[in-house]
Amino acid sequence: MATTYKWTGKTLRSGIKSGEITADSKEDVASSLRKQGIIPTSINEKKGLSLNMSFGQKKAKITDKDLVVFTRQFATMFTAGIPIVQGLNIMGSQIENKSFGAVINQVKTDVETGTTLADALKKHPRVFDDLYSNLVAAGEAGGVLDAVLMRLATYIEKAMKLKKKVKGAMIYPAIVISVAVLVVAVIMIFVIPVFSKIFGEMGVPLPAPTRLVIGMSNFLGGLGGLILLVALVATGVGIVNYRKTKGGRKVTDRLLLDMPILGDVLRKVAVSRFTRTLGTLIGSGVPILDSLDICAKSSGNKIIEAVIYDVKKEVASGKTVSEPLMKSPLFPPMVVQMIHVGESTGALDQMLSKIADFYDDEVDNSVSNLTTMLEPLIMVFLGVVIGFIVVALYLPIFKMGEVVGG
Q1: Which residues of 74-101 are buried (b: 16+ CB within 10 A; e: fewer)?
Q2: pLDDT tens digit sequence for 119-154
Q3: 169-406: same fold as 64-157?
Q4: Residue spans per domain, the chain
Q5: How far apart are CA 25 and CA 89, in angstroms?
Q6: Angle between helices 288-297 and 262-283 (to 10 degrees)
Q7: Cβ–Cβ < 8 Å for 37, 12
Q8: Rg of the chain over CA atoms, in angstroms?
Q9: Can you tell me whether residue 39 is helix, strand or coil?
Q10: pLDDT tens digits for 249-306?
Q11: Does residue 47 contact residue 26 with C-beta atoms inside 8 Å?
């Protein structure tokens, strides 16, 4: 995220200068100053910045929606003949997200000093990724920046919709499972002890299911419940930290792809992302090897990333994209054949876009089927668990009735 730095430097003509500049790092500040003919002597982060922003209020997160709106509006301005610097100035002043506005203003400052728009965007990798900056570079080189920006906006919109579909599908089951666990926990911790006390006072011999439920209640309501909670939290933290390691990310990504139902959805998402990204890059004039490199970095899965890097090596040795893809089980034969046809006809970018659209629909259908399948499974699980608890609690009552009746 962009930060404000105070700097002091020397110039050959006017001596010592100082000022403030917003950038992602001190290295970016130094680079920007050197381009202006200033030799930096000190660069320090401006103190009290968080106090100036409503007493430590968090900076607004730059979302995909912000990026889409900026890209479309900037493309429209550029098409209308507004110079790049003036367009950036307008966008920086009118955008609602102040953090994004600060980044755009810094990009404008860099462009004013003679930096290309693509190089200025590369200084903010957290906002403008490799895909974005490389497409802009291709647009500047080919004189079709407006068309590339429109294509970028469309790409981000479709990627955002795909992400929302997958996240939306996971939200409902997660909520239902959380509520189910909470209901069972409340019954076990607060309701069962009341029945246990009543049964103890009556001195009725308890059946095995009842003893099991009461034993689990005592475990969860005592020190065992605390130990279980700590163990679950520690396991979650351990998995997160393990995924941060290179080997751990590969293992967990492989496990996710091998999962029975979710793995199929993730493979379809990966195919859609790969084909749309590659199609957008090639169609904008980015070289094929650079395009594959960007696709690998933006794949989101280490296993798929390794496959794409293997494809890049094969293409660098003179093969087509479809040839090495045939060796990978992650890419269906239909996808490989369509890519082969696109290469043969010289319309690879269009064919890749068609594949991406098709797999977007496939992901939508798979996600809907996953949600439909999970609903009854969760309900059955919840019914069985609560039903077992209820039966276990009523068995002593039935037995007591039999004794009284006898």
Answers
A1: bbebbeeeeebeebbbbbbeebebebbb
A2: 888 888 888 888 888 888 888 887 888 888 888 888
A3: yes
A4: 3-52, 64-157, 169-406
A5: 22
A6: 150
A7: yes
A8: 30
A9: strand
A10: 889 988 988 888 778 888 888 888 888 888 888 888 888 898 898 888 888 788 888 9
A11: no
Is there a contact between 268 and 363 (Cβ–Cβ < 8 Å)?
Answer: yes
157, two tokens:
């919109």
Work out the angle at residue 37's Cα, subtended by the Cα atoms of residues 31 and 42, and round it to the nearest 5 degrees.
Answer: 60
CB-based contacts of 142, cutoff 8 Å, min separation 6:
148, 284, 285
- Rounded distance, CA 141 to CA 146, Å? 12
Instruction: Judge whether 92 and 84 are in contact, CB under 8 Å.
Output: no
**Residues composing the chain:** 406
Looking at the structure, give the CATH architecture of the domain made up of residues 64-157: Up-down Bundle (1.20)
Residue 50 confidence (pLDDT): 37
Distances (CA, A) of 84 to 80, 122, 174: 11, 16, 46
CATH superfamily of 169-406: Type II secretion system (T2SS), domain F (1.20.81.30)
Q: What whole-number distance in Å separates Cα of residue 287 and Cα of residue 285?
A: 6
Q: Where are the alpha helices (DSSP H) in 36-125?
A: 49-52, 64-79, 84-94, 98-112, 117-122
Contact 295, 277 (CB under 8 A): yes
Cα–Cα distances (Å) from 143 to 121, 147, 346, 360, in that order, read 18, 9, 22, 31
Among candidate residues 62, 219, 37, the one with its CA nearest the CA of residue 126 = 62
Please tell me whether the overall predicted TM-score, pTM, comes out greater than 0.85 for this model.
no
CA 250, CA 252: separation in Å to the nearest integer?
6
Q: Which amino acid is residue 384, in one-letter code?
A: V
